[in-house]
Give the backbone structure.
Amino acid sequence: MKKIISLLFIFSFLLVNIKTTCEAATNQLTINQATYVYQANSFKSKIVGDIKPKDNVVVLQRGNAKTGTEWMKVKFMDQFGRYQQGWINQIGSMRKIEKPTTLYSVPMKTNSKLNKITPSTGVFYIVGYSMTGWYKVSYNNKTYFIPDWQRMITLDVDTMSYDDPSSMNKTGLVKRGISYSILDEKPGNWYKIAVNNKKVWVQKVKKPRTNDNAVFDQAVKTVLMLEGKGLSDHPSDKGGKTRYGITQVVYDNYRDKIKLPHQSVNAISTNEVKDIYRNSYYKDVHASKMSPKLATVMLDTAVNFGDGNAYVIFQRALGIVGKEAQALNWGELTDYSFNNLSVSQENELAKRIILERMRSRYNIVSKDKTQASFLKGWLGRDKQLKTTLSL
């Protein structure tokens, strides 16, 4: 009798394992494009990870009429080797256009290069959400933006309010740390808000920190730790001879500016490194106005990718550009969007930038296989930066 019971137990165990294996195989999905993973089934929720093309995930829950049929809850391995759960949407959320709807070319109503279209019929797909309160949509295979009716601003400092930006008549002081609905806006990051049932205008422009030297020194310390001390001169490295992230070409240009003869970048001094970091990277990405964590991430990104690519990564992480409109400069849109952020959003942005860096590295390798040998080290740098800053 005991033998029969034992056999039945083993048989039941095998059946459960076969069923589990079959279900896992049935629910496995191969991702065909780089895909953000969200905390909830909404593009407005926090991004918790990024899945690269050809990675497999396990589908835990498929969307329905209530949650959105295009959303799926999945189990995936993130870029740091940890299993996580979250929601993905690979096709976008379709919306039928039933009345004239204005679509903006950029997420900024006061942009000097803004173009608008107002279709009355058809469909568009919501494919993302910017950190500045705009839905990113796809219409006729082009990227547009639609403002969220709940767009808000949070003031980081007590701010003087005015009856109008043109008259500059003061109306009072608006307290920091409170979120206000945006009723209207004007160029120069002016926003119309309601305070105590009174409509007033405030300007939200970030200013350089008073302790910027200390933040810069700490950021430099972090970048130097990530870079290491040795000279890099790998034959497949596109940057050529490099030390502390500074290429021979950049160093030669620097020596020209200060009217000194060229020498090997291997002989670069610590003071020269700091001078190049501050004047060629830190200032260019406006890091003196950023939270310490974001400033460090942006300095490292500019050193590692170049300031032009750092701008693109910054814009992608903000969610303010589509494939058609990435700028290799700071620009009007980037400046407006950055000034719109609260300090807490800046730290969230720092995390997103690291995800975008990793996505960019995979793209580099997919386009140029000669760079594959660098991928592990590149990703290790991103992971170490995230850990160092406790992001």
In short: The chain has four domains: 27-91, 93-147, 157-203, 212-388.
